[in-house]
Amino acid sequence: MSVDVPDLVRVRTQHPEAIAEAAARRIRRPLLGDSGRLMIVAADHPARGALGVGDRKLAMANRADLLERLCLALSRPGVDGVLATADILDDLLLLGALDRKVVMGSMNRGGLQGARFELDDRFTGHRPQDIQRLGFDAGKLLLRIDYDDPGSLTTLESTARAVDDMAARRLPVFVEPFISRRTQDGRLRNDLSAEAVTRSIAIASGLGGSSAYTWLKVPVTDNPDDMAEVMETSTLPAVLLGGDVGGSAEDQAAAYEKWRGALQLPTVRGLVVGRSLLYPADGDVAAAVDTAVGLL
């Protein structure tokens, strides 16, 4: 699908209400289909200033290119939907790409990549009322916890209130938790050891006054063999996240194998993967997406 940027700009300029109109007529579907599994393509990275894929620092910066990749991914059999911020979802609505797809709004993008305030991750994206108003199907939020950074406490409290607000509206919310630490040069790194991922799951599962609508979005541990024990930490349904798996075909293949094993665990219900499928090492988006779907 070729994206006509001038046409999108014309509609946004002359008929901005077209976005709400497109959302209102969008054909919806249940969160889970007959398979009981989820395959979601993620594209909420740009709003946090995270535009890099592998060694390409601005890979996601070309919006028309990103939209074309997303439309291709969404057209592949077995792809259930998309996770993105309002600007991207608005474009996809105008392009008519979201019928019969699960649409997940990204809620907190204030923790900009590389910023000193990265762990004070404010809710600058979709609010629960926006997700409800637009008829979207779920929300997603990021929860990175550094025991040495007070910004994590602000994010933790805000996350709990967002969980409450989504549950009150009977809207699923996908919580993506990490234990994070800063390196000596100040960069933030997520700890993917079994102990850290276990601890993050335990913390995320207990947020808010109800867990009825809470899902977890979790990484595969450094040692994939640890995942069975790690996922025993909670009975909440979970999906696996992809992350930046590296820039080579070997890295991509290794990521598929890590996902394959973890997808067999009883609480794991699917995948939410972005950059590694939209910007694969060999450039073949359709093949990367089809391979991921095949793991389910």
Automatic annotation (TrEMBL):
It comes from Streptomyces luteolifulvus. The lineage of its organism: Bacteria, Bacillati, Actinomycetota, Actinomycetes, Kitasatosporales. This is Deoxyribose-phosphate aldolase. Residues 36-293 form the Cgl0159-like domain. InterPro entries: Aldolase_TIM (IPR013785), Cgl0159_dom (IPR054574).
